[in-house]
Write a structure and sequence with these properties.
- By secondary structure, this protein is of the alpha/beta class.
- Helix content is 36%, strand content 26%.
- Helix 3 packs parallel to helix 6 (138-152) and helix 4 (108-121) crosses helix 6.
């Protein structure tokens, strides 16, 4: 469903990714493991079209999306929860989650159905719905970013370092949310990055390791 094929990326002339190839099949659960600075975030941003590939291909649903702008990704049913959450602080939690669906011009009925699905998977977000995002804790913000990604991620969700900075109790709640997601939406693929492979072992089926911008051999 998602594929990077021989992708290299340079930022300000500095090589960041080197000949990266990975696949996330439809309904797959894939982890990308690496230390800080190894290239995990750049890999996700390249898949989302936020960082241009210098060489190689980004293929989504069999289509070459390498040179197409980022807004094409949600149209493929791909949601993205960045490491830094990127919430609008003056918006409510619910407004932050509704925004990408509204940008896609989904019908009111479709938006309502998707929001109900997100609240079913992440019931704590329903309690937080009227609160301003600026007043959330880091862990709550991570949950909102996941909910927002699920509003458009009908085929795939990319999660960048979702456990980073979470207290153990919040990390456990987030892991439980991912387990509910897996059970309720088995056809939705997940690509999740993390520096600690032990956190993801129960949640994924395949693991790639990235080191200094390169996928390590098996």
């Amino acid at each position: 469903m998602l594929e990077l094929s021989g992708v290299s990326v340079a930022i300000a002339g500095v090589p960041v990714l080197r000949n990266v190839s990975l696949k996330v099949p439809a309904g797959g659960r894939v982890a990308l493991i690496g230390r800080n600075g190894a290239g995990k975030t750049t890999t996700l941003r390249t898949l989302m079209g936020l960082v241009p590939a210098t060489t190689g291909k980004v293929v989504i649903d069999g289509e070459d999306e390498t040179r197409l702008p980022p807004h094409h990704r949600p149209r493929h049913g791909i949601g993205y929860a960045p490491e830094d959450r990127r919430l609008f602080g003056s918006f409510t939690v619910e407004d932050n989650m509704l925004l990408p669906a509204q940008v896609l011009r989904l019908s009111e009925q479709e938006i309502a159905e998707r929001l109900a699905r997100v609240y079913g998977l992440l019931p704590e977000l329903k309690e937080l719905a009227p609160r301003k995002a600026a007043g959330l804790s880091g862990g709550q913000g991570k949950m909102v970013a996941l909910g927002r990604a699920l509003m458009v991620g009908t085929k795939a969700v990319l999660l960048d370092e979702p456990f980073q900075g979470l207290a153990p109790a919040l990390a456990l709640r987030y892991a439980e949310a991912l387990k509910r997601l897996r059970a309720a939406l088995p056809d939705v693929a997940i690509l999740i990055t993390e520096s600690n492979p032990e956190l993801l072992r129960p949640l994924v089926e395949q693991t790639y390791v990235i080191e200094r911008g390169e996928i390590a051999p098996d």
